[in-house]
Amino acid sequence: MNKPVSQAEFPTPTVTTGPLAGSRRVYTQPEAAPHLSVPHREIDLHPTANEAPVRVYDCSGPYTDPAASIDVEQGLARARTAWVTARGGVEAYEGRPLSPLDNGGATGKYLARAFPVRHQPLRASGAGPVTQLEFARAGIITDEMIYAAERENLGRAAALAGAAERRADGEDFGAAIPEFVTPEFVRSEIARGRAVLPANINHGELEPMLIGRNFLVKINANIGNSAVASSVEEEVDKMVWAIRWGADTVMDLSTGKNIHNTREWILRNSPVPIGTVPIYQALEKVGGVAEDLTFDIFADTLIEQAEQGVDYFTIHAGVRLAYVPLTAARVTGIVSRGGSIMAKWCLAHHTESFLYTRFEEICEIMRAYDVTFSLGDGLRPGSIADANDRAQFAELETLGELTKVAWAHGCQVMIEGPGHVAMHKIKANMDKQLEVCGEAPFYTLGPLTTDIAPGYDHITSGIGAAMIGWFGTAMLCYVTPKEHLGLPDRDDVKTGVITYKIAAHAADLAKGHPAAKLRDDALSRARFEFRWEDQFNLSLDPDTARDFHDQTLPKEAHKVA
Amino acid sequence: MNKPVSQAEFPTPTVTTGPLAGSRRVYTQPEAAPHLSVPHREIDLHPTANEAPVRVYDCSGPYTDPAASIDVEQGLARARTAWVTARGGVEAYEGRPLSPLDNGGATGKYLARAFPVRHQPLRASGAGPVTQLEFARAGIITDEMIYAAERENLGRAAALAGAAERRADGEDFGAAIPEFVTPEFVRSEIARGRAVLPANINHGELEPMLIGRNFLVKINANIGNSAVASSVEEEVDKMVWAIRWGADTVMDLSTGKNIHNTREWILRNSPVPIGTVPIYQALEKVGGVAEDLTFDIFADTLIEQAEQGVDYFTIHAGVRLAYVPLTAARVTGIVSRGGSIMAKWCLAHHTESFLYTRFEEICEIMRAYDVTFSLGDGLRPGSIADANDRAQFAELETLGELTKVAWAHGCQVMIEGPGHVAMHKIKANMDKQLEVCGEAPFYTLGPLTTDIAPGYDHITSGIGAAMIGWFGTAMLCYVTPKEHLGLPDRDDVKTGVITYKIAAHAADLAKGHPAAKLRDDALSRARFEFRWEDQFNLSLDPDTARDFHDQTLPKEAHKVA
What we know:
Chain A is an alpha/beta fold. Chain A is built from 19 helices and 15 strands. In chain A, the strands form four sheets. Chain A has an eight-stranded parallel beta barrel, surrounded by six helices. Chain A has a three-stranded antiparallel sheet with strand order 1-2-3.
């Protein structure tokens, strides 16, 4: 249960604001749409460097902009809503009435306070394009696409000098990374399903971004309260903290009571796409008894969350009845929570999963709000021993089949991947995913490359994440030091995010992304010239670098790089 | 300078003793030499597991054995000296007289206390075999080889069931890992130069071990005081702490004063091979002026250290005069300390390096004590930008040439490798090393896969280390979170060691080492069955795993693995 506070006592979440050390949030206006203001971060260098500021990708939102006024009770500005309504195809409506069950029946002091502002939801109003995929296929470049293209280029007006050489220097395993990202390139990547732009029409606070093999590798941070730990305030703070250090998307994996209200606070304050696993909330609505789940309860939960603005849903529709016995001889069975819920349901009813049989109805709901599918890998391996087995790959084949169904309904799709995989078996995962899922973006958890280091699974998985990112995975779901042991706190969130920024950047470098190496080179020059402040400020975590340095030695001892 | 204490006040180093949580140090007697007692560690499982204890490789020395009596003032027992003298070919002699310069001229309260016991040094007495390589070529299996074979097998009397399948399941890039390691296999690997057994005849305290591509991947931890920080006690404690968590060898990189005495305390208490970079001490002897270095001062330093029992020397003999200009256009020039000392010497005298021109004389010294060469990569890249450039590879080719010279003199050789290398350029390093160095073991620092995360370089480099270990590197030199920023403290040493144990183990798994996966499987079974204590005890760091778990949640929330 959450902290027992009355509605009146419920504290306003406090979040970390202010710029990262030595840097400023800056904005550029894309040529194709000068009304858009696209954020980046610029790191200023010491005058002796005689170098321009280094510009880096920024997903920290207005929180790092001293000029922005932050009021967590109001939420962020909803600039994007105007873009959505301007292009039409959507209608405002009353929305689904809130049920006490949406917050697990919590009442009185156990009920987390509702977000103070209510926005009327939008939904598709007809057959015209409403999803980014539908617009892309219709040849229409949306504001979101222009915005995201500008971000990927770090606001450059043209390809930087040397981009072609940096591309040629990489090994991208058949990706098609351009030297310069045009809005048209973004459109074409979305149209062919090779990238997603997760952007629920009800998430007006969103700063649009891209997930795809031909763009910068992205990372996701999981947050969420549980039945027993943490509160709404802590989760809002963790979200802002995670994006400060570089999380490109955030998944709210809350369980227990107050799921609805927690999510509302997170969404209204989030500039990054928010993902959820709706079956978690559906399960709460049936008292935690998997066998009692029904399609209607699930579909109602999808609508509830889609109206709030969740940008992508993990849906474990590939856990088919026939696959469950394939896990019987595994060392660690089914370790995905969503996967085990659905396996239990299938076995109890001895029936095919309703997520699979009624997948087209799910697509219709997803399309109406442009919620992106994140097809869950409910049968992912939970140990090195179970990697790449028949259960895992049978499910992946089904996810490939469902990808095509979702695409036919105009829905954006990405595919979730493992898990625990030794290094020599990682590439086979990427290759098979590309083959059976029509190049839909891959979104993997790690993978962890050994099982023997609980307490350090950010590292066991950071190794696998860097490799699979290099091979073509579009987004890496972080793992924190608390994996397998407990819920991450604020420090764990930061450690997980920084570790995964390392993995994503190492992958971008190896792929030969034209922008990636500029930052390494700037930092290396600073290092060689003993510009300590520049070295700190150019690093992923200036505070820690500075702190470590200040703990110890004079310059002489550091000459070895 | 070290802490100013008088000789009498100098405190006895305190070291951490006692077993790791849930485990025992055990010993087995090899069939081929029942007088040897070879250590392993056994982790007991909960009775409900109904499984035998899990045996793992142990390099912690007698410190984790409650039955051993530890007296740091006396040093460890010198069981190995009897093996060395029994097979002959060595003579005891008076040894080189200690010079005040050996401790940087420190006097009075600034002079670290000498180690209380002096052992007369041994050296080769004739042309008969004295090095492990010479014995191996002569078809003689030494006690050290038998001991190390028994360790690699974790004391198994025969190949474990399933070893062949685990081998077949891996990808080893042409390595020749056997299902079961026989003493004869060890001999043949050493004879052909594909493995080293670093074991100075004066390091009687040593528990012999192997470094080679067809054995378990090993890790090295660097310690060492500097001109301004840490004391003898701290360094002895760090050595014991590093091997407790899994360091297979330790390099003493001390600089400043008291180098000789610090090293003596470390060696007399070390069961693992100790490596040094002798040019560091030679430089102190000429007041830090690189140009003043001479071959005689260097050779005298080699003898000084060889008499003490140092097991391997990093020697940057591949930094040739002609290569120095190749670094001029680099982003980070020459970052190896040894490399830059020698480059400075070469340029100042405009002469070929004496390490290169008088390499055969160096070989004679190394052979007389069986000190293993670790041919240093003085021109390794210090940034992603400089990786795999002409300077680096020119030096590597020279190291290959010198390897053959050293082999001709009966010396064991390993080759040091980079450095900073993006993922897609790592394999080329391994392939080239194998090609030009006749399969002599590769010993790499990381490599770091990006430059942008100072404060987290154990992770940026752990990624590269796991990969290059998989590709064939025999030993991985750790990097701590303080890399580039300061000297590691005790916590940093532990973090570095655990990170590198992860990398080495991930590499063993991917190579299909027949013993590696057993531990993962045991831990995964414990995880799946919620045997929490077993999960903690089987992990690389039981204390941290237990601590993280106890901080947070009840079992329900952990079901997701």
